[in-house]
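Reminder: ligand-aware prediction takes two inputs, not one.
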Amino acid sequence: MGLTREQVSSGYPGDAMAPRYAIVECDCGVLYNRREVSLPIKDIGFFECVECGKRLEIWYGRNVPSFTRLTSQGERKTNRA
Ligand SMILES: [Zn+2]
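Here is what comes back for the chain with zinc ion:
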């Protein structure tokens, strides 16, 4: 598994004031900024990598992640001239 998560804050369960950020790296090398938000109602969903389609997370509940793609750190190699 190439999934890496680094919790930046201590992350108390009831600490709704401080959003938690983490960097998630897909197997294909794409980096995402993962932010967790609290919803008033339960939500179900999943997030798939925009590059390779790997399912990175599935959630069900009031705390749902929000992913933002970071600018490519390692350059993707393309054969396009
Ligand atoms: Zn990927």
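The chain has one domain: 1-74. The pocket of zinc ion is lined by residues 26-28, 30, 49, 51-52, 54 (CB under 6 Å). We will return to this case in the review session.
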